[in-house]
Amino acid sequence: MNPKLISSGLHQYIDRETAGVRSEQLYGDRIVNYLYSAVREKAPLLFKALTSSSVSHLVGLWNYDVTFGPAFSGVPSFCRKLGINLSECVDNPLTFDSPRHVFERKIRYWQRRPMEPDAFTIVAPADSKLLLGSLRTSSQLFLKGKFFDVYELLGQEKALWHRTFQDGDFAIFRLTPDEYHYNHTPVSGVVVDYYEVDGTYHSCNPGPIISVITPYSKNKRVVTVIDTDVPGGTQAGLVAMIEIVALMIGGIDQCYSERLYDKPQRMEKELFVKKGQPKSLYRPGSSTDVLLFQRGRVGFCQDLHLNQRRRDAVSRYSLGFGRPAVETAVKVRSTIGQALLGEQPRKADNHGGLSLRAS
């Protein structure tokens, strides 16, 4: 790695559609890194206050509501700066009167985020940057303890889920402020558990993730466990979807819709959810989704494996962990893997020209 690139704070990822290397503009990077270095070390009480729910809410209010006020006329230039495509929005962009309305936008996902018809595929829950991992030391994707402690992540009292996912695989989806903020269901199945775990509001910037031990399992989060081994399900075993708040995230609204964005309803046990449908909405800011799979029940797409090991991209995760860990930009509802029966794929091991493999 070039030392100048390291010192510059550069962070790069792979564009899945082109396989090209892209550099990411990390919002508030200098301030966030200062907060997680000098402030965290020299003023721990101040750091604790700044990552609290109340402060996170106030910062989010200032950035997404107060700054522009009711007459937010700079929508086109604001969106061009962030690279937001207004043409895919459901609502007329002229009705957006604040950055909040931009970030909470609905899109014509049924047209702009097409989904493979294969019933056994697993799809990305969000427009995001993706990393794969495993909790098994025998796996090439072994990243245990780098991003979260699985027992903390699921809640200390959830012994059943600790046992269920202890040797499994995971996928991390990092959302940035410019991206579409609805989460969609990655699999089809029946909700067998749904609960919230209280916590703080750490940043999802790659710098803090490396400097703070297991930050994802310390932030406030919502856990949904889905049984996919049911009629009409994806047949990928039990899948846990964890939605994690971050700085400036005011909350997570559960608003599952079986069709388009119609008749939204909250998550609850025994609800059957269809793959690719809107599940929840992050209030503005950056945030993260984590999917946990049981051992031997998912084969991730080969291109995602290869991208993660690429050495032509400067990733802060690679630098911090001492091994290649490069993110791939994925679209919501795009295929990230396929359900496995034991160690065998349920269908052909090629999907869309991308080889699928167990981790």
Keywords, please?
single chain, 359 residues, alpha+beta, 10-stranded mixed β-sheet, 6-stranded antiparallel β-sheet, 12 helices, globular, disordered N terminus
What does this structure look like?
It is a single chain. The protein has one domain. The protein is built from 12 helices and 19 strands. The chain has helices at residues 3-7, 29-42, 44-50, 53-66, 75-82, 99-103, 109-112, 150-154, 159-165, 206-211, 302-308, 316-321, and strands at residues 12-15, 21-23, 121-123, 128-134, 169-175, 182-184, 189-197, 221-227, 238-244, 252-254, 272-273, 278-282, 287-293, 298-301, 328-330, 335-341, 344-345, 350-351, 354-358. A 10-stranded mixed β-sheet has the order 2-1-15-4-5-13-9-8-7-11. A hairpin with a 5-residue loop joins strand 1 (12-15) and strand 2 (21-23). The two termini are 27 Å apart. Residues 1-7, 67-72 and 347-355 have low confidence and may be disordered.
Number of helices: 12
| Averaged pLDDT | 82
In total, the number of domains comes to: 1
Strand arrangement within the widest β-sheet reads: 2-1-15-4-5-13-9-8-7-11
Task: Give the helix level as a range of percent.
Answer: 10-25%
Strand content: 25-35%
Give the terminus-to-terminus CA distance: 27 Å
By secondary-structure content and strand pairing, the structural class works out as: alpha+beta
Characterize the overall form.
Answer: globular
Total strand count, please?
19
Uncertain segments of ≥5 residues (pLDDT<50)? 1-7, 67-72, 347-355
Rg over CA atoms: 19 Å
Largest sheet: 10 strands, mixed
Layout of helices and strands:
Layout: H1 3-7, E1 12-15, E2 21-23, H2 29-42, H3 44-50, H4 53-66, H5 75-82, H6 99-103, H7 109-112, E3 121-123, E4 128-134, H8 150-154, H9 159-165, E5 169-175, E6 182-184, E7 189-197, H10 206-211, E8 221-227, E9 238-244, E10 252-254, E11 272-273, E12 278-282, E13 287-293, E14 298-301, H11 302-308, H12 316-321, E15 328-330, E16 335-341, E17 344-345, E18 350-351, E19 354-358
Parallel strand pairs: 1-15
Antiparallel strand pairs: 1-2, 3-16, 4-5, 4-15, 5-13, 6-12, 7-8, 7-11, 8-9, 9-13, 10-12, 14-16, 14-19, 16-17, 18-19
Helix pairs in contact: 2-3
